[in-house]
Amino acid sequence: MSVAVALSPAGVPVIVVVRVDHAQELAQTICEAWESLNPQVLHDVTPLEDESAYYIILEEDNEYYRQVLAESTENTGRLLFLRYSSDEQVMESLVSQITITMIMTLVGKYQMFHAAALGDPETGRALALVAESGTGKTTASRFLGQHLTYLTDETVIVDADYSVVPYLKPLSVIVDPARPKEQISPARADLKIPSSEQSFTLTQLVILARDKSENHVVPRLVPVDMVDALLTITGQTSGVAATEHGVEKLIELINDCGGALRLEYSEIEEALPLVQGLLRGGRAAELVQPPVEVEVAYAQRDPAAAHLLWRGPGSSAYRVDERVLLMRGDKLSEVSFFAGDIWFELEKPLETAKLRQRLEELYDTEIPAEAFEYNITELMNLGVIGRGVLDSGEEVTQAPAESHAASSQS
Hints:
Elements: E1 3-7, E2 14-19, H1 23-33, E3 40-42, E4 54-59, H2 63-71, E5 79-83, H3 87-106, E6 111-119, E7 125-130, H4 137-144, E8 149-152, E9 155-158, E10 164-165, E11 171-173, E12 182-184, E13 201-210, E14 220-224, H5 226-234, E15 237-238, H6 246-256, E16 260-265, H7 272-280, E17 294-298, E18 309-311, E19 316-320, E20 323-328, E21 331-335, H8 337-345, H9 352-363, H10 369-382, E22 385-387, E23 402-406
Parallel strand pairs: 2-4, 4-5, 7-13, 13-16
Antiparallel strand pairs: 1-2, 1-3, 6-7, 6-8, 6-9, 6-15, 9-10, 11-12, 14-16, 17-19, 17-23, 18-22, 19-20, 20-21
């Protein structure tokens, strides 16, 4: 017997096809955990019939999944398989699968952070609590969501106008460390759920820094400089590399929020007044940071293979005063100012000797060969520069590199 559950996380249609002996009971369990998304129970579902939906086939083996795959010629990328072993296991795995499916669908369309989000229903302001997994994000959102509007504990989805798209997934709570996490509906956890008429705008980016030591920390908010904020937040960001000028958009968001903040605390209950103050009264003057100008440059779009050094395809650089960040793929790395100058000097491909000569002119000093080669090797290991061999008679052609400053004055 099979039954299906239809969900729409952040507007992404997902249909879970349940094919186990107790399908009706398991479908009901799924509906209870995801009740904040108003799930619908469906019968007689034909996978891939709805071309806009993703279908997750949940079964003990993959026999039905393979059958559907064999009979389909289109949209097979929207067909997913999730193996059933127990209700507890599959409920936890389903949350991960739905979240990943949603993120992969929305990547490049929104800014998305691995964070919790809460809003104030009176002001319409929202804040994101950015943190790595296992560092107190769900615990914080579970408590704060009883006093503020709960928007998500997992993925903060931010539109171009900074409006927040709620993602009301189940809370994944550790009840027994030896067993899968329990999936609890936000409503059943007594959290305040937004109505369909409510809207929230992201106005604060807060990095959680819980002190788990025996030393009690009185909660406080600390400004975070731009480079440290970028390094921390991009590490918890979904699809920044797949979003056109994704880091620049994050820079603008940080600036428009008045800079990022770090919340240092031991117990989240004690931090409630600080969080409420951010959403209701705004920041104290000493916590507001002026817009930071960041020099931004991008690699040539089609670097030629040559006996020359060139910027790695898709790499980009972000320079703030004396600190430099380089990005390739989805990894943002801080490098020395000298290593940054190597990348910036490669606006067009250069011979190694010519590059070293330019840097010596720039620094007005002789650069030791060992130090120069060390930095070249480090940058090549990061994939942000490359070196190749040019056939005789060929010319190196490059698309113009882009370089400009990113800042926000709002």
